[in-house]
Write a structure and sequence with these properties.
By secondary structure, the chain is α/β, with parallel strands linked by helices. It is built from 15 helices and 15 strands. Helix 2 packs antiparallel against helix 3 (52-64), helix 7 (221-231) runs antiparallel to helix 14 (439-452) and helix 9 crosses helix 11 (329-339).
Length: 464
């Protein structure tokens, strides 16, 4: 398989290793060659693991002995730069966090203990609070489908690495859509799990409450499951993970609510058409699909949404002295705004979060799945923070992101699945949202859609 191993996803690599068709050393050598060639034009990776070759040799030795640690043994996985991995800094796209880390945070440790090859760190916006991927420390990240366009954010470097064939999969974070929207922009599958299902401990400070979770990004739906099975499960360091209920499993005849637009918020016409086709696909697979409005009032949470990150940044500024000198000015400005938010306003917002969670819980008593576009806009110029016009209308910073943040606030799982691409060939994603702990059902639904659709296709950049 010399020369072709970079094309293989996690499941394919696992099978190839078992069959003796390749080995982790060969895979890493090829990946490093591709990264050297392609990464300068994308800026997906900002640092590579210094022990990557040693990881590969250890994995190859285990596989040769017939003693793999898991099906992920020898699978190269990229890590977003806000995840803590030993041997490299977790910079969070900032000059504030530059120390080399001596330990892995919990999800990273689970990957390492499963034998996965931790390739390196991928770019993200500073403090991971933007919907594109750029920072003054590492620069701008491009989309493999068109490097002049953004891959989205904040897991933009992660999706760029996977879509360009510079990793078999990646681990990202999602605090307001940061896995699901970038997955849609690059034709990938991305899972935002239920709060606590993938436990966290030992990482960077949290600035988005419990809204931010860790999840995988892959080129196939089956690979989502392979990685999820390694990452999920309770741990006493994360009490959220010990309250997980029974997983909702796949079944036929699901009740699906298709929500094409949120109120009068604009969505690109081509994206609406593609999402509609995906809804029709679900119907053809035997599910009961109904189009209608979202039966949840998002206005109260939307009014306060931007303040959550501001308050989180103000806490960082108050507790980390280096922030004042080393953080970029716009984030210090955000922190200053957060410091001015009255305590009673924050408490009122937390009450709205509680009410939203109760409301959404009741909605999933009626519906099995809610399906929406993953983004309201196509990717825009890579150095631009957000698109200011959608479907001919002016929008603000979150205009492209209206479909995702509420899912973080309520804590439910969501999976992005590739839909029919646009006329220019750019990927388009749809989002499947389920009840708490319905990851298995959502991933099974994603696999069924993948089987009935066209599946993964490579961008020209990856083949050049």
């Amino acid at each position: 398989m010399t020369g072709e191993t970079w094309r293989l996803g996690a499941s394919e690599l696992s099978r190839a290793y078992r069959a003796g068709k390749t080995n982790p050393v060969e895979v890493v050598d090829q990946l490093l060659s591709r990264i050297e060639k392609l990464n300068p034009g994308l800026n997906a990776y900002v640092a590579l693991a210094p022990d990557l070759s040693a990881q590969a040799e250890e994995s190859a030795s285990r596989l040769k002995r017939g003693a793999p640690l898991s099906p992920l043994d020898g699978v190269p996985i990229a890590l977003k730069d806000n995840l803590v991995m030993r041997g490299l800094p977790a910079t969070w796209g900032s000059d504030v966090f530059t120390a080399v880390r001596e330990t892995d945070e919990l999800p990273v440790r689970r990957l390492r203990n499963a034998g996965a090859l931790l390739v390196g760190k991928t770019n993200c916006p500073e403090f991971a609070v933007e919907g594109y991927t750029a920072n003054r420390k590492f620069g701008v990240t491009g989309n493999p489908w068109n490097p002049q366009l953004t891959p989205g954010g904040s897991s933009g470097g992660a999706v760029a690495a996977v879509a360009a064939g510079l990793a078999a999969a990646a681990l990202g974070t999602d605090g307001g859509g940061s896995i699901r929207r970038p997955a849609g922009y690059t034709g990938l599958y991305g899972l935002k799990p239920t709060i606590g299902v993938i436990p966290r401990d030992g990482g960077l400070p949290q600035i988005l409450l419990d809204f931010e979770v860790v999840g995988p990004l892959t080129r196939t739906a089956g690979d989502l499951r392979l990685i999820f099975d390694v990452l999920a499960g309770p741990d006493r360091q994360d009490p959220h993970s010990r309250t997980a209920g029974p997983s909702e499993t796949a079944r036929d005849g699901l009740k699906v609510l298709y929500v094409e637009q949120f109120g009068d918020n604009p969505c690109d016409a081509e994206i609406r058409s593609s999402a509609r086709a995906a809804a029709n696909l679900l119907s053809s697979l035997g599910h009961d699909v109904t189009a209608g409005p979202l039966p949840v009032d998002l206005e109260p949470i939307n009014r306060f949404w931007g303040s959550f990150a501001q308050i989180g940044l103000s806490h960082l500024l108050a507790t980390i002295p280096e922030m004042a000198e080393k953080a970029s000015p716009q984030y210090l400005e955000m922190a200053a705004l957060g410091a001015k938010v009255p305590a009673q306003d924050l408490y009122a917002a937390l009450e709205e979060v509680r009410r939203l969670r109760a409301c959404v819980s009741q909605v999933f008593g009626e519906w099995d799945v809610i399906m929406t576009p993953s983004s309201a806009a196509h990717p825009w110029p890579a150095a631009k923070v957000f698109p200011d016009r959608i479907d001919g209308r002016e929008v603000g910073p979150r205009g492209h992101a209206v479909y995702t943040g509420w899912v973080n606030a309520c804590g439910h799982p969501g999976v992005t699945v590739p839909a029919r691409p646009g006329a220019q060939g750019l990927p388009i994603g749809v989002q499947l949202i389920g009840d708490l702990h319905s990851e298995d059902m959502l991933m099974s639904l994603a696999q069924a859609m993948e089987k009935a659709g066209s599946g993964w296709r490579w961008p020209d950049y990856a083949l050049g």
